[in-house]
Design goal:
- The mean pLDDT is 92.
- This protein has helices at 6-19, 22-25, 74-80, 84-102, 107-113; strands at residues 31-36, 48-51, 68-73.
- Helix content is 44%, strand content 14%.
- By secondary structure, it is an alpha+beta fold.
């Protein structure tokens, strides 16, 4: 288990987000990235969450909608990782996983692709 304060973890997430391929992030529309310690229910096993309407469901999307959110949970990542290299890999996987949900890729397909 690692220790890292909230500011350092958020900086690491931003750094990993900046390393993602442009074609993956350029299509993100009306999405914000948020770092939280853990979900409201206290679950320390959930690494991330996509809240919103995927592109495949945007026909239900209205004008003036609040942004979709991709949440990265700090506690789960720190609990699962022993060093910064492992942490960066896990954050990368979480970002790709949650961005995939934005594009309409479900967990079953992510498992097939090795991203879940």
């Amino acid at each position: 288990m690692m220790q890292m304060d909230a500011d350092a973890f958020e900086a690491l997430v931003v750094s990993e987000l900046d390393l993602l391929p442009d074609d993956m992030v350029d299509g993100l529309e009306n999405v914000v990235f948020v770092v939280e310690d853990h979900p409201e229910d206290g679950d320390r096993d959930l690494f991330g969450l996509y809240e919103g309407w995927s592109l495949t469901e945007r026909d239900r999307y209205g004008i003036g909608e609040l942004p979709d959110r991709i949440i990265v949970y700090r506690d789960a990542h720190l609990d699962a990782c022993d060093d910064e290299t492992e942490l960066r890999d896990e954050v990368h996987t979480t970002l790709v996983h949650e961005i995939a949900h934005f594009y309409g890729i479900d967990d079953a397909r992510l498992h097939e692709l090795g991203w879940a």
